[in-house]
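Q: I'm writing up a methods section and want to include an example of the input and output format. Could you take the sequence below and give the corresponding predicted structure tokens, formatted cleanly so I can copy it straight into the document?
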Amino acid sequence: MGEAQQQVAPARGRYRATLAALLVIVLLGAAVAILAATGGLETSTRRGPVEHGPQEEFTSSDMRITLERAVVVDQLPGSGVFTDADAGERVFAVLIEVENLDVDPRLARSDGGLSRVIADFGIEGEPEISVYGDGDFSVVTLQPGVPARLLLSWMVDDDQIGEGDDVHLTMPDAEKRESTLTPGTFVWDELPPSAVVVTTVEDLGEGREDGRL
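A: Here is the clean output for your methods example:
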């Protein structure tokens, strides 16, 4: 092989290697762009639930939330939970302040909403949700930008949870999107939980007739 041919061969090899490297970079860039556009990149880097304590404000599911107290009580009028003391039933209740950060009213009992709060000691079913102090537990609607104090209440056995016990409350998360079935309306899709609140339970004994904690 002549000297000129020896020089051309390495040059062609370097040219092909450069093209291959550029092709890899272009493909990687396209993949990242697709992931970012579809939310896949956000999902893959999403962290687990962040831990919070009582009286600590945080945002979850487009709601600003502060947990004030967690209690067990024999009866809690207005909460929507009705107990039988002879059967060893009590009420576990969580008092929270919540503000809807979305531009539209939102039902507290909805996908990704407060009805999806989960306590870590084996409570079955979703909580009853009531407006604290007025006994309204039929349909609770969160108005945009209006803070509300709500009770989340479950029925528990009298030996299931008590004074001084720590409880972990997993808070739901969700994102809003336009409905594919009804254009112009919006729905909430649940996401993995974004927050866990850790607090200590208080035992309020028989409770008060007015439903106050």
